[in-house]
Design brief:
By secondary structure, this protein is of the alpha/beta class. About 35% of the residues lie in helices and about 15% in strands. The protein has 12 helices and 11 strands.
């Protein structure tokens, strides 16, 4: 740990959406921050004038990771996702002030034991407790998919009782530097001059969002109050998908009509990155009680940074002769699989609706 009055932090995965926001928040609060990354991202230019140093680091090089991490007041790991990563971090026991690790809200199971990774459609979507609290059940099996691996990582970390570790469970994350920015679903429609967007379930789907600004605040509070804990990390707004749409369109100053229909999506029609058959809403009560957390920003006020970044990055890509898919590769794969930009289907639905009147 630091021996002078300057607190030090190392961020693993520091140029991604959470890492960049946390580095900015900590540096603004007087921390000296070391950002470790794989060298595949340009990072946040806003950090240039702050006490932030960047290094290239291969996560699989455990010796190098431990060498750089030891001695810091805080190590934030934004990219750990399986038990072997927990085993790496456990070796820092006694050598760091505290550890904060980003997990996911998808580790929760529904009342029937289902979880997001195994959903095939609305009929088997988990029916979650509302709201989900940190003490609710999480997936516990040997499947080598995202949510079971994250849950197993959590359990492995919590076994190291002498190492202060805070595990944060965000929801649908939004912020600059995301290769899977969900808001692109609406941003693209605005840029394509679509006058209407079609949403299923009367636009009422609720999937807790997580601003990187709010996650960064939680990281700072956990660093200042080391402990052994699991906390949800979501925006308290719990907006519906229709409200998210209107917030994004308002930021882009575009008048887009939100058209809804009852019931689940019809094939791809009405489906969005936030579409859930039952609400997935996480409680922030524990963070409020344990850390004195107060949400710094709400969805409508914070999502503008992600929208501006996305528009700018796509414009730069287009000047290079690339498409939006180059900026959002993860989103592109999901959009193709789920038909998120099937404008022909939307137009046909809207024509049929007008004809039926």
């Amino acid at each position: 740990m630091a021996t002078d009055t300057t607190r030090t932090a190392m961020i693993i995965g520091g140029t991604g959406q959470i890492g960049a926001a946390a580095a900015r928040r900590l540096a603004h609060d007087g921390w000296s921050v070391l950002v470790a990354h794989r060298g595949q991202h340009s990072g946040d230019a806003a950090l240039a004038d702050l006490d932030v140093t960047t290094i290239r680091l291969d996560r699989d090089d455990t010796d190098a990771l431990l060498e750089h991490a030891r001695g810091h007041d805080l190590v934030l790991d934004t990219v750990a996702y399986e038990p072997r990563h927990a085993d790496q971090l456990a070796q820092l026991d006694g050598d760091v002030g505290s550890l904060v690790v980003i997990s996911t809200g998808s580790v929760y199971t529904g009342l029937d034991g289902g979880y997001l990774d195994i959903v095939t459609g609305p009929e088997d979507f988990p029916d979650y407790p509302i709201p989900l609290r940190e003490t609710d059940e999480t997936v516990d099996n040997d499947e080598q998919t995202y949510s079971p691996l994250k849950a197993a990582m959590e359990r492995r970390l919590l076994e190291t009782e002498s190492l202060p570790v805070s595990i944060l469970r965000p929801g649908a994350i939004h912020g600059p530097f995301s290769p899977a920015l969900r808001e692109w679903f609406f941003i693209k429609r605005a840029l394509d001059h679509r006058g209407r967007v079609v949403l299923s379930d009367d636009g009422s789907n609720r999937f807790s969002t997580s601003s990187t600004v709010n996650i960064a605040e939680l990281v700072k509070l956990c660093a200042e109050q080391p402990g052994h804990r699991v906390l949800n990390a979501v925006d308290e707004d719990a907006l519906s998908v229709a409200e998210i749409a209107r917030a994004v369109f308002a930021i882009m100053d575009r008048e887009v009509e939100v058209v809804t229909f009852p019931g689940p999506p019809v094939e791809s029609l009405g489906s969005t990155p936030w579409t859930v058959a039952h609400p997935l809403i996480l409680s922030m009560a524990a963070a409020t009680v344990e850390l004195g957390y107060r949400q710094p920003t709400n969805y409508a006020d914070s999502v503008g940074a992600a929208v501006d970044w996305a528009v700018r990055e796509v414009e730069l890509a287009q000047r290079r002769g690339d498409g939006w898919e180059k900026v959002f590769p993860t989103m592109a794969a999901r959009a193709q699989a789920d038909g998120w930009f099937d404008y022909a289907a939307e137009d046909a639905f809207l024509r049929d609706r007008i004809t039926a009147r």
